[in-house]
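To close the section, here is one more complete example, presented without commentary so you can practise reading it yourself. The ligand is zinc ion.
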Amino acid sequence: MTNDKLTFSVSTLMEKPMATSESYTFDAEAEFEDIKAISNVTGKVSVMKIDKGFNVITSNVDIKVAFECERCLRDFTKEIHVPAAERQFYFTAPENIEDPADIFLIDKKRQKIDLTDMLRQEIALHFPVIQVCSDGCKGICHICGNNRNEKSCNCEDEHSSDHKPFAGLKDLLK
Ligand SMILES: [Zn+2]
Ligand SMILES: [Zn+2]
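Output:
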C-alpha cells in the first residue's frame, strides 16, 4: 500500500509486541520549509516498535528540488536521493538530549507519526555542497552584470590586473 501522506498510523503497531515492524511505501506531496520541492517525495519506511516509541528507517527517498545557481543565479533542478536514514520517535521526549531538533514525537492523540521533519533534515543534508547549474557555468560578470553563459564580455580582461590583489604577494613570500 502506498501512502499519499507523510503521516503514518501506529495504532495497530502500538498493541503489538516489541520489535514488531511494519513497512510502507510513500508517494506524497512534499511541503518542506526552506526546500523548493518540485516533485512528490517518494520512498520506503519501516516502523519498528521499541521500548519508548518507534524506530523509523527510511530508504531510497527521492525528490526533485529547485536551486538557484550560485554563479549565474538561474534556477536549476536536481534529484536528491537519500539512501537511508534512521530516527527514533518517542511517546515523551527523553531528558538530557543534546539537540532537541533530533527528537521526534509521536502524535499520541491521533496515534500517528509524521515523517515531514525527519525527511526535511535528511533531504537538506543531501543538498549539493556547491549549488551550480553546471560545472561549466561561467556565472555573471561582476563588473557589467552580463550572464557570461550567454555572451562573453571583455571586462575581466581589461581589469584583470586590478582584481588580483594578492598576485604580488606570492613573490613577496618567496
Ligand atoms: Zn549557473
Ligand atoms: Zn562584463
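Once you have examined the C-alpha cells, check your reading against these statements. Residues 141, 143-144, 146, 153, 155 surround zinc ion (ligand 2) (CB under 6 Å). The mean pLDDT is 90.
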